Amino acid sequence: MANALKLCCDVVRWFPVVFITAIVLWSYYAYVVQLCAFTVPSIAEKVVYLILYHPLLVLFMWSYGRTIMAAPGKVPRQFYLNKQDSDRLTRETNEEVQKAILMTAAKDLPIVNRTSSGLPRYCEKCKCIKPDRCHHCSVCGLCVLKMDHHCPWVNNCVGFTNYKFFVQFLGYALIYCLYVAATSVKYFISFWSGHGNRDMGKFHVLFLFFVSIMFGISLISLFGYHCYLTASNRSTLEAFRSPIFQSGPDKNGFSMGKYGNFVEVFGESKKEWFLPIFSTQRDGVSFPTRTKQANTYQTMGKTPSVGDGVNYPTRTVDLDSDGLLAERQRWMEEGGELGTGDSTGSSQQLITMSQD
Questions:
Q1: How far apart are CA 229 and CA 303, in angstroms?
Q2: Is 151 one of the catalytic residues?
Q3: What is the per-residue pLDDT across 153-181, written as a single tens digit (0 to 9) for each?
Q4: SS3 letters for the chain?
Q5: Arithmetic mean of pLDDT, 224-234
Q6: What does the pLDDT look like over 335-353, one tens digit per residue?
Q7: Most confident listed range (57-71, 85-99, 295-309)
Q8: 98 touches 80 (CB < 8 A)
Q9: Quick one: which of 224, 170, 243, 181 has its CA closest to 53?
């Protein structure tokens, strides 16, 4: 029963991808056949439209396919606790021993992000120390490197391995929609005003313009937002909750200037900037920071907040993967107060879980 339910969920998740693909296939027929072949009177105009249209379509679908097919960035093996340590951490009820296990496991790892208590971020589901900017995806069931979000329109996590493709997909989809709308508008107006033939093929031109405008308007804000995130070197999750360093939360902690931030995503090679080719020089684990950060976890005190003078509640396990907090909303990894209970019994339990 559980396998059948999982299979149904997997099939349903592909519906948005099938829908987008069907819309693009129909738009190809409407534009190439109904508009260019049957409606546009000038041969020269037909040729120009088609020459410009097909490269846009190829780049659009190429980047879309790469976004869908790119495997979520997996956490390297050295970040996983061995079975002995993970079992010990699960059974252990002493808070100080738990902290010691996590700090020992993370002492040689290249990480600067931490919880508000100054500890390495730990995923209880994956049994691993989280690399910087890594988060657990409840949909994929994996910790994803530099995770941005899970996008239903591509049925995939958007993160280190495919964020460049995702931004390109949004950009080329927007250009595609605006180009189709701009080249079909005069024929749409002619048909709408009652001029020209009234065969059924004209309705394709009518809906082609409407659909391209509708999708174009919706893509403007989304593409603009991710351009802003790229220029700021932030993920969607980091825009909502700043990554925590030894000095405290810093929303600009990974920002290296607009050009440096752009290169972080699109790579150094200018020839590959506009092609859906993986071109970043990073490994998805280590990232340069605006200021020099210590990567030691010998400090066990609270990490101070920045700006508002408020300290986060002390926790040692990420909320997005803590099995003890199954009733909490983990998608945006927002913290909350722990439920109250018997204070005598709770003193023997792990009560310090990470805000991040």
A1: 25
A2: yes
A3: 999 999 999 999 999 999 999 999 999 99
A4: CHHHHHHHHHHHHCHHHHHHHHHHHHHHHHHHHHHHHCCCCCHHHHHHHHHHHHHHHHHHHHHHHHHHHCCCCCCCHHHECCHHHHHHHHHCCCHHHHHHHHHHHHCCCCCCCCCCCCCCCEECCCCEECCCCCEEECCCCEEECCCCEEECCCCEEECCCCHHHHHHHHHHHHHHHHHHHHHHHHHHHHHHCCCCCCCCHHHHHHHHHHHHHHHHHHHHHHHHHHHHHHHHCCCHHHHHCCCEECCEECCCCCCCCHHHHHHHHHCCCHHHCCCCCCCCCCCCCCCCCCCCCCCCCCCCCCCCCCCCCCCCCCCCCCCCCCHHHCCCCCCCCCCCCCCCCCHHHHCCCCCCCCCC
A5: 96
A6: 333 333 333 333 333 323 3
A7: 57-71
A8: no
A9: 181
Q: Tokens 């072949």 — which residue?
A: 37
Other beta carbons within 10 angstroms of residue 206's beta carbon come to 16
Q: Considering 151, 157, 177, 227, which one is annotated as catalytic?
A: 151
